[in-house]
Input
Amino acid sequence: MNSEQNKIFASSVETVLSDPELAKKVIEAIEKGLYSIEEKAKEQKVIIKTELKDELTKELVAKDELKATEERLRTEIHKWRADTIKWMFIFWLGQIATFTGILVSVLKLMLK
Output
């Protein structure tokens, strides 16, 4: 509250209580309560801020771990693809050699 609001509040309390001393004590008690609430709110703000920082740090670590896992998977996939291509080449070479052998044999038999 600003000072103008404080004055209005104080005069309202004095009017309601009709005892200036009692009104002053009530106002002081309310101000102490408000101060206490403000202090607790500040403490909570610090705690929540720290918790958020910790949570964000964990998320960043998890994100980094995910990226590392993704890279490992990419490497494995590339290795697997290279290996598959190698074995496909060997397979088709064998097929061509077999087909050529059969073709040569058939041609020899037909030309005799």
Summary: The longest helix spans residues 20-111. Helices lie at 3-17, 20-111.
